[in-house]
Design a protein that fits this description.
The protein is an alpha+beta fold. It has helices spanning about 15-20, 25, 100-135; strands at about 5-10, 30-35, 45-50, 55-60, 70-80, 85-95. It has a six-stranded mixed sheet. The radius of gyration is 16 Å and the shape is elongated.
Length: about 140
């Protein structure tokens, strides 16, 4: 089964990034999560299969992927690096015609995963910067 993955470094604590990962609307406005399956027809719908806070792992599938693939299963993992930094890996496994894997690597890996991970990192780092600035000024409301 082919697997496409992208990984990024985030200058924010893993717990803070994990909180963001679970809300696609904050960092990936094209995705909508429906725990029990699609009830509407937004651009892209994902169904959460598993959410494990202990390992900071979110697994989901797309009932109707926008690519010529089947048996789609994606996973986002947030891994501690240090107290205030982490890594996020986003991967997907699926079935497809082997002749288009190069295209899927570009479209899914670069055009979706890489761009969305950059947005996630920016959102998390912006939030963390606000917390750090507030802590420096003595304001505890941003935490």
């Amino acid at each position: 089964m082919p697997r496409i993955a992208r990984r990024t470094f985030v200058a924010a604590p893993a717990d803070r990034v994990w909180d963001l990962v679970q809300d696609f609307a904050v960092w990936h406005p094209r995705l909508n999560i429906y725990e029990g399956g699609p009830e509407a027809s937004p651009e892209l719908v994902v169904t959460v299969g598993d959410r494990d806070a202990a390992t900071r792992t979110l697994t989901y599938s797309m009932p109707e992927p926008p690519f010529p693939i089947t048996d789609h299963r994606a996973t986002i993992v947030v891994e501690d690096h240090r107290d205030t930094t982490c890594y996020v890996e986003w991967s997907a496994e699926f079935e497809s015609d082997p002749g288009i894997l190069w295209l899927l690597e570009d479209q899914l890996g670069d055009d979706i995963f890489k761009i969305a991970l950059d947005k996630l990192a920016s959102a998390a780092q912006d939030q963390w910067a606000e917390v750090a600035l507030a802590a420096k000024s003595g304001d505890t409301s941003a935490a």
